[in-house]
Amino acid sequence: MPELPEVETTVRGVGPSLVTRRITGWTIRESRLRWPVHLPEVMRGERVVQVLRRAKYLVFVTQSGAMIVHLGMSGSLRIVRRGAPAGRHDHLDVEFDHEVLLRLTDPRRFGSVHYHVGDWREHWLLEGLGVEPLTRDFDGRFLHGVARRRKLAIKQLLMDGRVVVGVGNIYANEALFRAGIRPRLAAGRISRKRYDLLAEAVREVLAAAIADGGTTLRDFVDGSGQPGYFTNSLCVYGRERQPCLVCGTQLKGVRLGQRATVYCPNCQR
DNA sequence: ATAGTCACCTGAGCGC
DNA sequence: TGCGCTCAGGTGACTA
After folding, report:
1. I need a labelling partner for A168 at 20 to 30 A (CA). Which of A54, A66, A218, A262 fits?
2. What is the pTM of this model?
3. What are the structural domain ranges in chain A?
4. Any idea what DSSP says for residue A180?
């Protein structure tokens, strides 16, 4: 999926065409996503007042509530012209009071779409989410604090959305490489100083990926259908058994909590 | 509370 | 070409 940078890229791509527009209708071609898609009649006629990201959710804030979209592993949202033929995995179109549609494509159907009446922050999927990594709340002190006495591998802690949001498998691997920390280290055994480095690495890698329009492995496209270019800047993800770009040591691939994990046994300790 | 596993689904890539 | 297998960006639910 779409991790934080890809979702942010999507928000920036589709947001400007939709803000101030009125929702005139929608077409659900396939409602069997992660949760059944049901959009209530109260959404019709609502004006979009803001499009934002919270964790990996896109939030289309309206006057009465918000449409909340998650892209799962393979989802993407694009602005297309009305009448554009729908493909096999184009599950939802939302229509507005101008000549374009917001179209959700999601081959694996792990994504989700909800409409929440009221404050979007109170939607059950968003309650209990951790801190945003690009805010000031996220720093070494914070990570060090939540890691206290935890035996969980640091990589898994980084990927726990109740702690910090938006960091998926690609960027967890990349941030740990940049910080020089082994993915399997027990979170509770890492020093405050190293957590300062890690928090900084997470922020840097996410910011760099956003600047490049995200990472495209197979199917991610931005709001206008373009792939992301951060793929070219990945140091470890997808490079197991290849030489480390810094020291030349062969990168090691292991599995951690069912996820592919790659690190440099020399640079990361 | 914490850590580990499973499930959901389609498509791509690989060996045979 | 086709078959069967493994793997893939996420995360809620469930188990010990």
Report:
1. A66
2. 0.97
3. 4-122, 140-233
4. T
